[in-house]
Recover the amino acids of this structure.
């Protein structure tokens, strides 16, 4: 093995080293005198020293800023106390190594048969050995995917060692195990646990019964199979029955009890979510814009006569808990693939990411065992989103970050993507696809490794040193970008009939789903391209290795398709063909290893029956909290983690690539005000636009998830409407992240209550979406928000994310949130009530009390329609939603984003019920929007809004102060806007 | 006459759609072409009047931004010979060529820019990590000092977004003075008064002499870090809603219009 090393020349600052220095100080309190980094490439393949020298200088490095060495340690040229070297474990995706390999090929103009792996050295000075170990373990490397060694300088000097880089290999011969499923309940339970199947004994018994059916058995015998299930069959069956694929809870029959009332719900999805969409579509008649909902990888709506939009939001919580960077990165590129595989294929045009973390200031000692620090998770996830979006050339235009103690055990990472596609391609409707019998099964993109097999349940302890790591995956955005470019080209040439992505369940799911279109499929697994040898056939079938799409290619177009793939540098492999046998069949060589009926696989099992209960928590208003100084109160709220500026995060995401941006995440006189929603103009020759926003508020979910859901829907919608979306053209997506709702006396005694909350939230989805007339077009649930650590059970707060995708007829009518000019009138739309429960204000004062914010959907809708009309008229100068922190925060943000002051009085504030100054300013009542209007447009605006709750509370000023008079007419707050902005900016200014 | 602009794609280039749109809005007929197709037959270049390497993350910025793509361009050999030679010919013919962001990094690292003394293939300057150590997406003001660039004719100032992690222009002093002498410095980061600045964030990466873009001696090749193709519509500007614009075209379009105009005037 040869070794090329590269480092930044001494005269240049080493950017990675500097970043490490500041992170060590900030996150661990360790002060490094200096840190420098060296990148190493371990290369096998018999290149001569001279060749390596040229490659290092000409192909791998920048002669201006870097120096190189071949088979000689660069560290010699530096002084340091400790040398830390970190490398990926065998089998982990190493993107830089892949690029290096290709660069060798491009440089030499021929195929390079050797291998390249990378590692990184850190030369650390001014710290102790324990501190070096902490930096390695807590800041740089992740045990699950990386290994490292640390040498003190004196020790290193003796022999100048480096980390031994191992190649992934496995000595195992391919074999197929068979399992007798005619066993007792206990044995079946053990089997399920041992193989991480997550199947109940009942489910396995149903499987056994299927295999024994005479007609099934007869056919199986012809193929050398019998009553026993092969490992591939068992795994494939478990995968199709998994919560992830089947949404058993959302399909389950539910016995619901609230006080003394009891009734049955025939499936949450059917009753409340799809039920809502069906009702809305029926009512909409010709105005219905849904094209394909709850059918495909993503929901598809029409954008205009010629174009459709596909939108999907996924969660990637467990992977992000284990490896925040890789988890978030694969979350992004994964949901991108959902859109790439929606219909016949859409081109992703934006990402949106909503994140829930524990507080970053949490003490290290308070972190449950086996959990990463919230700050580390935050940093890693943010970086994963940056690389996932930026490298793929998809702008990250919207998102939200929510901090709460309960997410310390389990972060939530919601990744969303929308894509655009012509409504018709080559004379066919693009949202329809159909694999045909005789079509070839072609897999494109990445190769197959043990990645993601059984996801997180595989612990790294079971593996020996050279075993490929399976639990955690790193994405390769560039491999996927190539596949995307190719896919769109092949789509427009009509080279395939159908497509879907490889996500959960790998080939077993993608081919299994597409087989439903043709009526069957036959897979030839030995043909699959592998990352390294030694995969078992069932592993090839189930692997969740990233960057892969499965296509059905007609034989007549196969040659052309494969040729195109070759020219684009995209690996493509024929893995069998689609049939009409009614079976999903897989072979390894000549041996059949899987032979299952499609009808059984996809519809073979009875629904779950679950129990739910709900008892409303009593609400009591919070008495008056004495506020000695409204100014410092507001500053404290502005600097709160859940209110403060996200500029540090937003600026590192490319939110403008593709050139469609109209309203950006940061807007205003100094480009730093917080937008309510993003607006893009996706078509070159049309001013029509898309508006994207979200709503999430887990704070009140514990009390009553019905109102949590209502508020999330209202928040998403009002953000969209405030920015210009037409309330008659908004689609919604739901993402539930919940503690386990399946009751179990021993393991999950709270299950009924969790399910009760899920029922309440789903019911709200129905109630509010139907009144708003905004259909759900796609959704996803993740119902495993619990963790047991050392005998203690931790659960996340029940959380519902609502994403809204709206349309705007002309983006030139979009409205930004910043105050524009002095002398404009300041209006508040929507009534303020004493609804303080879960508010930032009460949380700061440590109170759980207060009335929950309620939503009146009819009133809200009327208000939103009126506001939209005014916006279309062009008389809304700015609009900003009142949400976390209440009216005071909205006033401050709108003022300082515009670089203007505001003088307002609470007297004219539209309100319901008794209200003190504190409630007026900090209550978080729903459906309120802060608007500024030119004086000359006052009458027009007021007449357009008539019939709704609204009031003119003041005006914008040149003087740089936010001044507020209370109900009795006294000035209760006067603060310089730049001071307020400073407070708002500082908290997450890392 | 139909003016044909070639916009390269592939390997992680990702601003190809909007760059092609920029050319077509400027009146050219723009074609996106995969780099591998051009490598296969570099002679295709001769049919075009303008060439762009757009922004993106070619090869994921592994080995340094633009490096791996530059390596590919420099060494690729197709049926009709070396791609690099065809590109050099194209440049020598004086046709407009633009490299934006990743394209600029590729130009610099493959020795296509500035290529003083006709030394194509020799890397004479470099682009390094931002001083902030991180990727930044923010709008900047640019000043266009008097230069040879044909693409910046009639442009004094320009506002456009920057979106990069490696955008710090560096060169040794000797080279810097040559660049100034020969009028190759054609864009600089400027403060609110339009003066070149070294202060963050107006200069988002710490570029020497606040350099945001340079051209070659002939003036037909322009490389710049910021993204003019991301400002084709007035609504792209982060403050368009504050100051309703006079025109719904964005300022970035002018650069592409200059390219088309130059071709129209010189290559009939």
């Amino acid at each position: 093995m040869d070794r090329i090393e590269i480092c930044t020349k001494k005269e240049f600052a080493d950017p990675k080293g500097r970043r490490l220095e500041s992170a060590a100080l900030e996150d661990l309190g360790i002060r490094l005198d200096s840190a420098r980094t060296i990148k190493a490439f371990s290369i096998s393949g018999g290149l001569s020293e001279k060749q390596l020298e040229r490659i290092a200088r000409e192909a791998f490095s920048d002669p201006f800023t870097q120096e190189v060495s071949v088979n000689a340690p660069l560290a010699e040229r530096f002084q340091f106390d400790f040398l830390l070297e970190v490398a990926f474990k065998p089998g982990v995706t190493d993107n830089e190594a892949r690029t290096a390999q290709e660069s060798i090929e491009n440089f030499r103009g021929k195929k390079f048969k050797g291998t390249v792996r990378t590692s990184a050295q850190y030369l650390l000075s001014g710290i102790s050995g324990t501190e070096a170990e902490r930096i390695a373990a807590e800041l740089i490397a992740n045990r699950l995917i990386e290994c490292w060694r640390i040498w003190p300088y004196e020790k290193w000097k003796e022999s100048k060692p480096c980390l031994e880089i191992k190649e992934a290999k496995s000595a195992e011969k391919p074999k197929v195990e068979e399992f007798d499923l005619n066993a007792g309940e206990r044995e079946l339970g053990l089997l399920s646990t041992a193989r991480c199947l997550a199947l109940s004994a009942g489910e396995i018994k149903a499987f056994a019964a299927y295999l024994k059916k005479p007609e099934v058995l007869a056919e199986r015998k012809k193929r050398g199979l019998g009553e026993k299930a092969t490992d591939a069959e068992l795994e494939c069956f478990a995968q199709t029955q998994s919560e992830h694929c089947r949404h058993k809870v959302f399909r389950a029959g539910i016995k619901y009890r609230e006080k003394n009332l009891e009734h049955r719900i025939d499936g949450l999805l059917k009753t409340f979510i799809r039920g809502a969409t069906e009702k809305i579509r029926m009512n909409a008649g010709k105005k219905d814009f849904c094209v394909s909902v709850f059918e495909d990888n993503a929901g598809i709506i029409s954008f205009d006569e010629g174009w459709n939009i596909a939108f999907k939001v996924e969660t990637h919580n467990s992977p992000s808990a284990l490896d925040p960077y890789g988890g978030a990165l694969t979350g992004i590129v994964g949901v991108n693939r959902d859109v790439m595989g929606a219909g016949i294929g859409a081109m992703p045009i934006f990402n949106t990411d909503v994140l829930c973390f524990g507080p970053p200031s949490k003490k290290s000692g308070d972190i449950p065992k086996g959990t990463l620090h919230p700050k580390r998770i935050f940093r890693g996830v943010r970086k994963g989103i940056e690389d996932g979006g930026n490298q793929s050339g998809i702008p990250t235009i919207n998102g939200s970050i929510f901090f709460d103690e309960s997410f310390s055990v389990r972060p939530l990472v919601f990744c969303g993507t929308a894509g655009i596609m012509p409504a018709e391609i080559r004379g066919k409707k693009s949202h329809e696809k159909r694999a045909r019998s005789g079509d070839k099964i072609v897999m494109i993109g990445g190769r197959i490794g043990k990645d993601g097999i059984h996801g997180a349940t595989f612990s790294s302890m079971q593996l020996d040193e050279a075993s490929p790591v399976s639990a955690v995956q790193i994405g390769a955005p560039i491999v996927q970008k190539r596949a995307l470019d190719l896919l769109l080209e092949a789509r427009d040439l009509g080279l395939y009939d159908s497509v879907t992505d490889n996500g959960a369940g790998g080939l077993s799911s993608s081919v299994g789903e597409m087989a439903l279109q043709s009526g069957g499929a036959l897979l030839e697994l030995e043909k699959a391209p592998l990352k390294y040898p030694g995969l078992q056939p069932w592993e090839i079938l189930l692997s969740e290795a990233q960057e892969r799409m499965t296509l059905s290619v007609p034989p007549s177009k196969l040659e052309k398709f494969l040729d195109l793939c070759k020219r684009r540098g995209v690996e493509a492999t024929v893995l069998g063909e689609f049939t009409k046998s009614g079976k999903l069949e897989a072979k390894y060589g000549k041996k059949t290893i899987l032979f299952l009926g499609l009808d059984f696989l996809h519809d073979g099992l009875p629904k779950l029956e679950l129990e739910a209960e709900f008892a409303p928590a009593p609400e009591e208003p919070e008495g008056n909290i004495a506020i000695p100084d409204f100014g410092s109160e507001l500053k404290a709220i502005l600097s709160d983690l859940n209110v403060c500026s996200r500029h540090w995060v937003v600026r590192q995401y490319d939110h403008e690539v593709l050139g469609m941006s109209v309203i950006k995440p940061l807007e205003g006189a100094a480009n730093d005000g917080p937008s309510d929603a993003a607006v893009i103009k996706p078509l070159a020759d049309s001013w029509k636009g898309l508006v994207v926003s979200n709503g999430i508020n887990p704070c009140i979910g514990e009390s009553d998830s019905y109102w949590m859901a209502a508020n999330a829907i209202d928040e998403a919608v009002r953000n969209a409407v405030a920015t210009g979306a037409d309330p008659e053209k908004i689609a919604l997506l739901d993402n539930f992240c919940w503690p386990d709702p399946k009751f179990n006396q021993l393991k999950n005694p709270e299950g009924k209550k969790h399910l009760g909350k899920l029922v309440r939230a789903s019911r709200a989805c129905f109630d509010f979406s139907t009144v708003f007339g905004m259909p759900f077009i796609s959704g996803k649930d993740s119902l495993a928000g619990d963790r047991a650590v050392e005998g203690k059970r931790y659960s996340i707060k029940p959380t519902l994310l609502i994403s809204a995708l709206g349309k705007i007829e002309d983006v030139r009518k979009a409205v930004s949130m910043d105050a524009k000019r002095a002398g404009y009138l300041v209006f508040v739309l929507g009534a303020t009530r004493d609804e303080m429960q879960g508010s930032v204000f009460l949380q700061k004062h440590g109170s759980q009390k207060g009335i929950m914010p309620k939503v009146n959907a009819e009133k809200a809708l009327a208000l939103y329609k009126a506001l939209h009309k005014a916006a279309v008229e062009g008389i809304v100068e700015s609009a900003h939603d009142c949400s976390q922190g209440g009216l005071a925060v909205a006033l401050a943000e709108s003022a300082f984003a515009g670089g203007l002051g505001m003088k307002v009085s609470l007297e004219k504030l539209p309100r319901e019920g008794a209200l003190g100054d504190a409630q007026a300013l900090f209550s978080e009542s729903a459906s309120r929007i802060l608007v500024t209007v030119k004086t000359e447009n006052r009458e027009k605006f007021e007449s357009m809004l008539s019939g709704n709750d609204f009031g003119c509370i003041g005006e914008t000023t040149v003087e740089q102060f936010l001044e507020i008079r209370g109900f009795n007419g006294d000035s209760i707050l006067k603060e310089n806007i730049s001071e307020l902005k400073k407070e708002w900016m500082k908290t997450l200014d890392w | 006459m139909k003016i044909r602009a070639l916009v390269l794609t592939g390997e992680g280039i990702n601003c190809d759609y909007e760059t092609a749109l920029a050319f077509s809005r400027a009146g050219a007929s723009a074609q996106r072409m995969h780099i591998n197709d051009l490598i296969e037959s570099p002679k295709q270049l001769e049919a075009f009047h303008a060439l762009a390497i757009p922004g993106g993350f070619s090869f994921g910025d592994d080995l340094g931004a633009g490096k791996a793509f530059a390596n590919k361009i420099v060494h690729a050999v197709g049926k009709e010979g070396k791609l690099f030679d065809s590109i050099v010919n194209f440049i020598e013919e004086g046709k407009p060529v633009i490299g934006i962001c990743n394209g600029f990094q590729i130009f610099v690292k493959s020795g296509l820019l500035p290529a003083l003394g006709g030394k194509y293939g020799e890397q004479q300057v470099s682009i390094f990590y931002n001083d902030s150590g991180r990727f930044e997406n923010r709008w900047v003001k640019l000043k266009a000092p008097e230069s040879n660039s044909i693409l910046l004719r009639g442009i004094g100032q320009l506002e456009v977004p920057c979106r990069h992690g490696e955008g710090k222009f560096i060169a040794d002093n000797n080279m810097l003075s040559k660049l100034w002498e020969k009028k190759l410095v054609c864009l600089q980061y400027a403060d609110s008064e339009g003066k070149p600045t070294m202060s963050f964030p107006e200069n988002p990466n710490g570029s020497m002499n606040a350099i945001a873009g340079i051209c070659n001696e002939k003036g037909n090749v322009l490389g710049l870090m910021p993204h003019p193709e991301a400002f084709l519509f007035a609504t792209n500007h982060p403050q368009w809603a504050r100051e309703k614009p006079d025109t719904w075209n964005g300022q970035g379009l002018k650069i592409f219009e200059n390219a088309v105009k130059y071709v129209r005037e010189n290559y009939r």
Summary: Confidence is low (pLDDT under 50) at residues 456-465 of chain A.
